[in-house]
Amino acid sequence: SPDASTAMGFGAGSRSISRYLDEVIFAPLPPEVFDFLLHTSVLNRLHPDLCDAVCGRHNGGEMLRWIAQHNLFLSALDDSGRWFRYHPLMRDALLHRLRHGGDIDIRQLHDRASAWFAAQQLWAEAIRHALAAGKSAARDAEAGAQSLAEEGDIDTLVQWIRYLPANLDPSRIELQLNLAWALAHRFRFSDARQLLDAIETQSAAHGGALAHSSWVKLRVVRAICEAFADNIARSIAIVEPLLREVPCGDIWVDGLVCNILSYCHLADSRPQQALEVQQRVSGVSVANRNLFVTVYRAFVMAQSYLRQGNLAEAERQAAGALRYAEQHTGENASSGATLAPILAEIAWEQGKGEQAQSLLVPRLETIDNFCPPDGLSRGYIILARQAREMGRLAEAESLLLHAEGLAAQRGWLRAQAPLLAERIAVALHAGDKLAADALLLRLQTLSQTEAAGGYI
């Protein structure tokens, strides 16, 4: 949350960096270079031809070479030297200037970028820029939705929903399933269930059986929805039989089946069984190169090793996947929400408090939006303990209350329990026995529910 970020000192640091960039980096630049930087700041990654399309010029390669030669926070994304990315802090500062300048048509820049990406059949980026330009991105919607899902771009899929027709189109089952998948991962459980029910009703009404891979996808998305809604037994009942259907003809769906079954085993405190599911299908998972399944596989494996006390292997799995994901999608990707809390817990256990904070604080908004129950509670407990150790008890309580509110809103008793336990520790540290007793009573009430069992 923004409040939490500011409380941890992140906001002040960002202002200092922004001032440094304005005064030391941007001010001395030739006007044509700064103009190029402004126009291309709408891009998550840069290619000479893409820059030409967005800027309406033919000097993209020359400009990128000049920027690289002058060490302007530009990093290469491939060995051929064709794809680049600005440093996130520099890009943020440029975007701030672009949005407050008023003399550049930002929607037109996004529209040009969308057209270029669509011509290259890079659908996920084409859709992101089309939406930023205020367009519906209806062309090649199915391919675009699958591309976004494979990247794990949940926010864009959810944002896209309001641009699509309200009526369900029988020819767009795959698109609708991907939207339901995104809603489940955004923890909008009721909306996801309604869409899945509508897809089933629609399919039955039109008399055509779903393709086998689509049927498996429908079932596994429902299992994902129930798992994230903390209905673990219901999710296992749906997904466990699907393991027999792997491979189902869609390697992305195969990955979803294995990952959510492993997740359910973890939620039921069975880390070895979670690992065994992944070992059973490791060949299928390795063959599937899409980003989301690869990252989520690393998440469940790292979580399993962490539960078993194997910190080295947990760190290896999570750190490698986080580097891989952020190289492709940037630092604000949903992958960081799942992996950063694991790495932060390992850092905290190793006495590396600053490293834990640097993993969590820049990603708090993403963690709030996409992190499953364990990771959410883990991340905020670490930050609260750090604040408590520094004597900032009000800040510790505020962090825990924020996370507890999200957990309550989503019905996550498993996350509420450890957060309440940590609030008791804060109250006792403050000498407030009355508050500690009241919190203990709430915790004891939670412990009587099956959902919280094993977490208290």
Automatic annotation (TrEMBL):
InterPro entries xref list: TPR-like_helical_dom_sf, TPR_MalT, WHD_MalT
The organism's place on the tree of life at top rank: Bacteria
| MalT-like TPR region domain residues | 220-441
Question: What Pfam families does the record tag this protein with?
Answer: TPR_MalT, WHD_MalT
Segments forming domain MalT-like winged helix:
23-100
Name of the protein this chain belongs to: Helix-turn-helix transcriptional regulator
Organism, as annotated: Klebsiella michiganensis
